[in-house]
Amino acid sequence: MHEYLRQILDYRPVCEQEVQDRKMMLRYLELFPDTIGTRQCEIAHMTASSLIFNQDRGKLLMVYHNIYRSWSWTGGHADGETDLLTTAVREAMEETGLRTVRPIRKEAQSLDILPVWGHFKRGVYVSSHQHLNLTYFLEADEDEEIRVKEDENSGVEWIPLGELEERVTEREMLPVYWKMIERGDGISRK
């Protein structure tokens, strides 16, 4: 059994959206067991994202995503990695330049199927598909050096939680972010 299958089976949905998305993820895994963890499956890919909090939990480290033209969480494709927490940590470090990130919790904090519309990436057209995504809470030191990953983002910044509404222009992602933030212990809309 792939680790991501175990992570999905162990995940306890907290709303109807997660109940339905979990059911669909398990169906995708049944239909495409050998390719869903890679980009070979053109319909859907396993992905992992993270909300990276500072130590006092009042800010998120976000990237300005070049494709979506919005401030966004970090994350990406599993690309053969079966542990989605490992994927989330790897992507967080690659996209922000952080050298140290720590899981706040080892369990996924959100489960979502996210549509990805057709787009060009590095000059190649990528057809519309689904991201079968688990999201994790990570923590980093606000004083650590950060940097842009030019082929994916054009900004990396600590954003106060109270500024998310004005900074995130990909409006359909705000409910996803708030769903997770509001379920976190000691995390509020400061």
Molecular structure report:
It is a single chain. The protein has helices at residues 3-10, 16-31, 84-96, 164-167, 174-183; strands spanning 44-53, 59-65, 70-72, 74-77, 102-103, 110-116, 119-121, 124-126, 129-139, 153-160. The protein has one domain (3-183): Nucleoside Triphosphate Pyrophosphohydrolase, CATH 3.90.79.10. By secondary structure, the chain is an alpha+beta fold. The protein is 27% helix and 31% strand. The protein is globular, with a radius of gyration of 16 Å. The relative contact order is 0.21. The strands form 2 sheets. Strands 1, 2, 3, 4, 5, 6, 9 and 10 form an 8-stranded mixed beta sheet that branches. It has a two-stranded antiparallel sheet with strand order 7-8.
Order of helices and strands: HHEEEEHEEEEEEHH
Question: What is the beta-strand fraction?
Answer: 25-35%
The named CATH superfamily: Nucleoside Triphosphate Pyrophosphohydrolase
The helicity comes to: 25-40%
What is the mean pLDDT? 93
Number of domains: 1
Gross CATH architecture:
Alpha-Beta Complex
Outline the low-pLDDT stretches.
none
Major beta sheet summary: 8 strands, mixed
Count of DSSP H/I helices: 5
Rough outline: globular
Number of strands: 10
CATH topology annotation = Nucleoside Triphosphate Pyrophosphohydrolase
Cα separation of the termini: 41 Å
Radius of gyration: 16 Å
